[in-house]
From TrEMBL:
Domain of life according to the entry: Eukaryota
Family per similarity comment: Belongs to the PER33/POM33 family.
Major localization class: membrane
Protein name: Transmembrane protein 33
Organism for this UniProt entry: Oedothorax gibbosus
Cellular-component GO terms for this entry: endoplasmic reticulum; membrane
Segments crossing the lipid bilayer: 16-32, 70-92, 138-164, 210-232
């Protein structure tokens, strides 16, 4: 009986953040009509008046930009649940937090697809356009690792993407609240500015590293052939991404490093041939590179 009560208590804690996000989202959508009416009744604002700041100004901005606000909330959910899966606090189940982090990222990817894609069409051209979107790649990525054996490293790309893409909107919200200066704002500017390229390179390196891990999981009995094959397809999508060249750059850097290792004087012929065969086989599997946007 005690175990059942303890389990119920943990489940309530695990669902608390999700319920909070749903309530906040509902309030934003519900309040948007009131904000629109107030704007119409107030007439044209004074162009010389200073911008409003405070909690109400932040709420008004979020209600007038509902999709961006929901994206920000789902990204915060990814960050929070990733942290809880690594450092289980307050009795949260790490396995459940792991899945909820991926679910939050799936929601983010779905919202981004809603922003970028036109009206749904059941045509081959629309399907090809859909599979070229980075958001579609990470929607499939999230679903794949939700249904597969847990790999903790799989949370790193979604965590870093959520941190990077939520930084600029967090700065905007802090500015609306009147806290545009401070340690939190400085950290967000540091993430969105000087460290952006390093974060994207780390994400791409993690994407590549996960491929051999899924193969090792397959031979250890923890993974499945479907997981390894599906992740290989995901990696080919990332390699052929129009908007993100970092995965291709990581493969290029790895090729240079392996070639330098194989061509060192005194290298064993067997090891040298193995390195070159691995490079040739990987190049053979690489998809064609499309024009970048």
């Amino acid at each position: 009986m005690k175990d059942i009560m303890y389990r119920l208590k943990i489940d309530r804690k695990e669902h608390f953040i999700w319920k909070l996000l749903v309530i906040i989202s509902y309030l934003f959508f519900y309040k948007s009509k009131e904000v629109a009416v107030n704007k119409m009744s107030e007439g044209e604002p004074n162009q010389h008046a200073p911008p409003r700041q405070g909690f109400q100004a932040a709420v008004d901005h979020m209600t007038s930009n509902k999709i961006d606000s929901l994206l920000w909330l789902t990204r915060l959910g990814t960050i929070v649940f990733t942290a809880l899966s690594m450092i289980p606090l307050f009795g949260f189940n790490p396995q459940t937090s792991y899945q909820r982090a991926l679910m939050s990222n799936a929601a983010t990817s779905a919202l981004r697809l809603h922003q970028r894609m036109p009206r749904v069409q059941f045509t081959r051209e629309y399907g090809a356009m859909l599979m070229m979107e980075d958001s579609c790649h990470y929607l499939l990525y999230s679903i794949l690792f939700i249904i597969s054996y847990p790999i903790t490293l799989s949370l790193l790309p979604v965590f870093l993407f959520a941190l990077l893409h939520s930084a600029s909107y967090s700065l905007l919200i802090l500015d609306k609240l009147g806290h545009s200066s401070g340690s939190a704002s400085d950290f967000m500017r540091w993430v969105a500015g000087p460290r952006q390229r390093s974060i994207l390179r780390l994400v791409s390196f993690t994407e590549v590293t996960l491929m051999p891990i899924t193969v090792l999981w397959l031979f250890s009995g923890k993974g499945s052939l479907l997981t390894a094959f599906s992740y290989f397809r995901f990696l080919t999508f990332r390699y052929a991404s129009r908007r993100n060249p970092y995965t291709r750059n990581v493969f290029h850097e790895m090729r240079i490093a392996i070639e330098a290792f194989a061509n060192e004087p005194g290298r064993m012929p067997v090891l040298k041939n193995l390195c070159h065969k691995m490079i040739n086989y990987t190049s053979y599997l690489a998809p064609p590179i499309p024009a970048q946007q």
